[in-house]
Amino acid sequence: MRRPLLLPAVLILALAAGLAGFRSAAEEARQIPPPRMEAPGQGAMEVAVLAGGCFWGVQGVYQHVAGVSNAVSGYAGGTEKSANYDAVSSGMTDHAEAVKVVFDPRVISYGRILQIFFSTIHDPTQLDRQGPDVGRQYRSAIFPASEAQAATAKAYIAQLDQAKAFPKKIVTKIENGDFYPAEAEHQDFMARYPRHPYIAYHDIPKLAAFKRLFADRYRDEPALVANN
User: Fold this and answer.
1) Domain count along the chain
2) Which pTM was predicted?
3) Which end of the chain is less crowded, N or C, counting CB atoms within 10 A of the terminal residue's CB?
4) Which residues pair with 17 in a beta bridge?
């Protein structure tokens, strides 16, 4: 599903009605245990690249995480030449819509970044889709920045599956691939268009669930790309 950006009022009502058949993110969110295995901090700032469906909501939630200094929407897992919205939305590239999260490991660990990812960002048991968005570009994937991150992610997925934290097996893949920032119109989308029907139904509930489940990690003022 290629999501429209700005809509006339009549289409907003139609799209909102069409989305009503899908479960909201608030219904999917759950409290899960943190990783038993943590990647040690590698310096003052670190990067996590995560794909969990539409990047608007993934970015919007991480922008409110204490310790995150920037969260950029983009494309990971494919080539630079086809790293653009039209090409990726076709489903014919190897990219996943992803977000590059820059965080301070002295404030929040990589393991906690992953805990938020699995708890409130998306449903990691859905294969090649999230909600109404279908295709490999919406797959659940982690692109580690180091061997330590890869080991943490792999161990955490195994831990959650063993604990049966979800009703079905986690399908999140650990992949290699470069990250390419998305176009300017996709940055800070939740903050700029909170009443967009897709944002209002699918992404604002994710933010509310994050604030409810991780109150001690929530920051009211978002870390916007426009301010970095």
Assistant:
1) 1
2) 0.89
3) C
4) none
Q: Does 54 participate in catalysis according to the annotation?
A: yes
CB 132 within 8 A of CB 15: no
Count Cβ atoms below 10 Å from residue 77 Cβ, excluding itself. 26
What b/e sequence results for 131-170 when a residue is b if at least 16 CB atoms lie within 10 Å of its CB, and e otherwise?
bbbebbbbbbbbbbbeebbbebbebbbebbeeeebbeeeb
Helix ranges restricted to H, 46-137: 55-62, 85-89, 110-116
* Active-site entry in 29, 32, 47, 54: 54
Task: For residue 55, give the CATH number of its domain.
Answer: 3.30.1060.10
Q: Which domain holds residue 203?
A: 40-227
Burial class (CB in 10 A: 0-12, 13-18, 19+), 45: middle
Q: Average of pLDDT values for 214-226? A: 97
Q: Whole-angstrom Cα distance, residue 60 to residue 63? A: 5
Confidence of residue 2 (pLDDT cuts 50, 70, 90): low
Tokens read off for 132:
């109404």
| Residue-wise pLDDT tens digits, 44-58 | 899 999 999 999 999
* Chain segment 59-91, per-residue pLDDT in tens: 999 999 999 999 999 999 999 999 999 999 999
Helix axes 55-62, 204-213, angle to 10 degrees: 30
